[in-house]
Amino acid sequence: MSLFAQRLIDWHRQHGRHDLPWQQDWQVGRDPYRVWLSEIMLQQTQVATVICYYERFCARFPTLADLAAAPVEAVMELWSGLGYYARARNLHACACLLMSQHGGQFPSDPLDIAKLPGIGRSTANALAVFCFSARAPILDGNVRRLLSRVLGIEGFPGVAEVESRLWRDATGLLPERDVAAYIQAQMDMGATICTRSRPRCAACPVADICVAYREQRVAELPTPRPKKALPERTTTLLVLSTGESVLLEVRPPAGIWGGLLSLPELPEGEAVADYCARLGVKINAVTPAPTFSHSFTHFRLHIQPLLCDVAVQPRLAEPKLRWVKTSALAQAALPTPVRKILAEISANS
Questions:
Q1: Residue extents of the structural domains in the chain
Q2: Helix, strand, coil % in the chain, rounded to nearest 5
Q3: Nearest CA-CA partner of 201 in 80, 130, 211, 138
Q4: Is 154 a catalytic residue?
Q5: pLDDT tens track for 236-257
Q6: I need a labelling partner for 69 at 20 to 30 A (CA). Which of 191, 226, 235, 251 fits?
Q7: Which helix (H) or strand (E) is 60 found in, with range?
Q8: Phi, psi values for residue 330, rounded to 5°
Q9: Which of these is catalytic: 39, 73, 270, 344?
Q10: Residue 258: partners with Cβ closer than 8 Å, 6 or more residues away
Q11: Secondary-structure class of domain 3-214 per CATH
């Protein structure tokens, strides 16, 4: 066993995280469903944010069969606010596939797991390690950062050549035994010691063999993503309200906020009154609300909300549109910016 692996395993026994909700579930038995759910939720999301979502999800869908049997709308409702909504759609699709084609069981081979919807190589390997005693490396954001610093690997990890080297090194460092403890130790090290900013190098068990620490390059590694200006987009969202209900539309499955409920988006160049007339909605007055911005991974969206007073709530012919009681908005599957708009309107009314 390498010195790196041995020290991480020893460190984890004493200082690693052992009391997270999904780890408590593991003590009862490493249910692949619970491991998979936690791994998907933790992608690009911090533990502190995930905990309450994980607990609510397990309470509503305690088993894989429960998740598969639920309508995707119910899944999106529970995911609302967690972001990266394709994860929720893929989660539901994967559950349905496992029930229909795999007898409700996860395959044990990481290569087969990686073929399932929404599961990449690293998540598949983690699931295989924790649940099926596989010997396989992972390469999530925390591990990329840890290995880049310890091994002094330059270059943005998202570049194919750099990622390929990281996979080779991650594989080469795997111990022959205690693989699950080693993998968890890497995750915990990246999350609590070898953090992106203000890493705790004085508490690191491998500081003396860390290239970045020795060469005083911890702040430089891993090499950050090459900076480029985010494209700017604008949209106008209509808050069509009767006071008791708000008009919402189901977003298309693909694209931003896919499958969630959102405020109707005013087509570019169309007058508000004309668009509302097409919907069969007659408005009394239109009041602009403050414009604000919301950043996505690949672009920044500038949102102009328009508050539209609706005297009478008409029946809607368009199936993607629905009136939602204001009292039910807290449980609705809304993207964060839309929830923010509605919350501010409610607070000011």
A1: 3-214, 232-348
A2: 50, 15, 40
A3: 211
A4: no
A5: 999 999 988 999 999 988 788 9
A6: 251
A7: helix 47-60
A8: -65, -30
A9: 39
A10: 85, 86, 89, 251, 252
A11: mainly alpha
